[in-house]
Every structure is written in C-alpha cells, then in structure tokens.
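for ur thesis appendix - PE-PGRS family protein. copy paste whatever u need, i formatted it the way the template wanted (i think)
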Amino acid sequence: MKFIILVTVGLMELLNSCQHASQTTASETKDDSLPWVQYRVHDLANDTTLFAQPQQVGVLTDSDLLETSGLVASRRNPGYLWAEEDSGNPNEIQLLNQSGKVVARFIVDGAINRDWEDIAIGAGPVAGQTYLYLADIGDNKHQYSEKVIYRFPEPTVVGQRLPYEGHITNAEIIRLQLPDGSQNAEAILVDSATKDLFILSKGERSLVYRAAYPQSLTQTTTMSRVLAMPFKDVTSAALSPDGSEILIRTYEKLFYYRRRSVESILDALKRVPLQLPLATELQGEAVGWASNGAGYYTTTEELDGEPQIIYYYARKK
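the 3d part is after this line
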C-alpha cells in the first residue's frame, strides 16, 4: 500500500511539473518539421531603457471606429495615422490626426471586409513608392480556405480640403493559403528589403507563415510555415521604417526584436526578444511605428465602454 501511495504521489508531481512546463515554455510548439524557439515568455526581460512609458496623445471618439484593429503612421501624410476596422465594417481605411479625429476616408474599391485585422506600410512593386497592405486574415471560426491581402500605393490628402472622402481604385489582390488549413490570424509583417509577406497566427501558440516576393496576383499562393513561437493571442505586428526593428503585440504584452545587419526577419524572430512598455488595454489590437521610427503607437478596440486611447511611446535614445 505504501508503495502504491508513493507511486501515485510521484505521478501527480510529474504531471503537475509537465503541466507547468507546458504553460511557461515553448516546448509545446515543437514540431519535427518546423523551427521553434525555446524560451519562457515569463522569463523575458522587461526593458525600460529604450522607450518611454505610454503617453496619451489621442482618443478614438468616432462611433465608426469602435473596432479598430490596425494602425500605421502615414509616410505621405506627415503627422497622420492610417486605421482600419475588422469584420462587419465598411471596406474603407481612415486617416486620423494624432488626436484621433478622422480627417479622411478611402473606400477600397473591389475589396470585401470579411475580417480585416491588420494594416502594414512598406515597399512594393514600384521602387520608391510607399504601399499599404490591408490584411483580411481573421478567421475566428476556422472556416475560410484563403487569406487576402489588398496592396495599393499609399494615398495622399496633401492639398485636399479636409475632411476628405476618396476611393482606392488600383488595389491589387494577393490570395494566400496556409499549408495546414484554416487558422485565425491578426498580424502581418512586410519585409522592406525583400517584400516578402509574413502572417502570424493567433491562438495558444503563434505560427509564422511566409509568402516570398513576388506574390502572384492571378493564382492563390500557398505560404510556407516557417516558425513556431510561444506567444498567445498575437493581435498585431510592425516593422520599423528602416527595417531594423520588429514589434509583436498580444492583448497584454509587447515584444521587441532588433534586426541585425543583413539578417532576415525569420532569423531575427528566432532570437530571444525583449518586452517593451505597453499600456493596459482591455482589447489591445494595434501597434505601429512612428513614420520616423522615433517611437511607436498602440490603440484598442472598444470594450465595455472604455475609451479607445491612442498611446505613444517615445524612444529614449
């Protein structure tokens, strides 16, 4: 009897230790065919030397912006931010001033807002031209076989009377398929050097998928699954204007990667990140760099009547 009790206790301790490990390490993401990172999210260093604590710079007060899920700083309209909303909202992007007021709206002709979840800004087919990438990648019910990226040159309102309403008439449609079936996702990255597209899935672990440039505009491209990361509930990602820094956010945490010279995004993401300051946001959905890389912005969807604050985190050095 004593032997049975000891064995039972030992098994319970072993099970408990295994459960604890699965909650705090990346070991659960191991896949024989997939690179995976090994570190415990809870052990990541909180860095307070690079960026300041959040400062409120604006509030989204427009009733049409309750489900803002992506935010990037404009490069052709200095001092303004681009925003978009997710499922159930119009197929439009909004240009905001930094106080959060909508100053322009652009309908994306030919686009469907099935579930837009992120927006990116960066290089594209024409050298020297800035492009916006709208990511229709959300799939809460795991029911869609394709992800869709709408790519178009960034519009400008310089010289226009505000508020302004316009149309995007030249959006290119990039259709993507994940190799392992439907996945919910809310974050994209566009490599400024290679113009490769990356999608980061949402869930108990984040899987990273890549579509190499040039992406087909006539056929559906099957993405490559390239990395497993120990992050839960990834809601947005952003690459700095010079391509040297990467941000990945969840509802509660913000992770930072410094990209070394001549290093791919994938190789950068394989290293251990730092945690950066992040305001407490009940439904934190978006992160985007300032157009000059001097800091970053975050904001949130509306939840339980809480204000949708735009926060700015200035670079310290």
